[in-house]
Amino acid sequence: MRAKLCEEAYAAGKAAWPDCELDRERFVRRAERLDGPTGEDGAAEVYLAIAIEAGVSGAAEALERRYLAQLPAALAGHKATPTEIDEVVQQVRAKLVAPRADGTTPLVDYAGRGQLDGLVRVTALRVFLTMREKTAREVPGDDWLDRMVAPDLERQVLAAAERADVKQAIASALGELPARERAVLRMHFVNELGIDPIAKLLGVHRATAARQLSRIKHDVVSRVRGLLAQRWGSDSDVLARVASQVDLSLERLLTSMQR
User: Tens-of-pLDDT digits for all 259 residues of the chain?
Assistant: First the structure.
């Protein structure tokens, strides 16, 4: 983008998003690497995208209000459940603003054509249809259990009925989590995001994101233990061995169940 276009885009974007105070020089340095925007709407998109990438206060919230807030109504028309809607919005948010290794975000690449509304809706619909298709073709098996407990424990200690109990406890524990918390686990274990990008996606301080992630993992493990204790008895020798493996294998468990 040429210098004059950068200046015009900055002015248009600042007018469109007055609550997002993006440094002019930072905008210009980033915008120079992009194609020129299409009209004022395109300029406003570029400004907001760069502001989010730069971590400007209020920018992520502006994206939520202007673009992501439209998705629940759009997805409801496709008979999406509230839980599916929450998960789709989380995935779309991650696709748009999760930082790459170099610190850039996909949103900046998409912005500038004045068509971000449509892009967000199309992305959400694709995510939803993929989710539905995956759910429809998935037939749960027992192979993922090898990733939940140590292989020698599964083969040598747990009987078939006990393995089924463990599987049911894990599925129940994850199923009881709110969609937002499942999304946080997916970001960390499946998308392999660190605390900083997770905090950015959630719009919270990194310390808050770290505490939330730790609490969610603790809740899952505690719930699995509680469910197994109800089934087997709190003094069960098998429970003690399995409980220790739940702690050690949470990452493998969640990765296998969320993909």
Answer: 788 888 899 999 999 999 999 999 999 999 988 887 788 889 999 999 999 999 999 999 999 999 999 999 988 888 888 888 998 998 999 999 988 888 899 999 888 888 888 889 888 988 888 887 766 554 444 443 444 444 444 444 455 666 677 777 877 887 888 877 887 877 777 667 788 878 877 777 889 989 998 898 888 888 888 888 887 777 766 666 666 565 545 555 555 544 4
Fold of 141-258: Arc Repressor Mutant, subunit A (1.10.10)
Distance from C-alpha of 71 to C-alpha of 86, rounded to nearest angstrom? 10
Count CB neighbours of 74 within 10 A. 16
* Apex 71 CA angle, 96 and 34, nearest 5: 30
CA separation for the pair 113, 201 (Å, rounded): 24
Q: What is the DSSP string of 24-68?
A: HHHHHHHHTTSPPPSHHHHHHHHHHHHHHHTT-TTHHHHHHHHTG
Torsion sign over Cα 119, 124, 128, 131: positive
Among 164, 86, 83, which residue's Cα sits nearest to residue 124?
86
**Residue owning tokens 């937002």:** 180
Please name which of 109, 127, 114 lies closest in space to residue 34, comparing C-alpha atoms.
109
* Rounded Cα–Cα distance for residues 68 and 49 (Å): 14
Residue 246, Cα to own-chain centre: how many angstroms? 23
Quote the strand ranges of the chain, DSSP E.
none
Q: Are 166 and 148 in contact (CB under 8 A)?
A: yes
Q: Tell me where in the chain the CATH 1.10.10.10 domain(s) lie.
A: 141-258
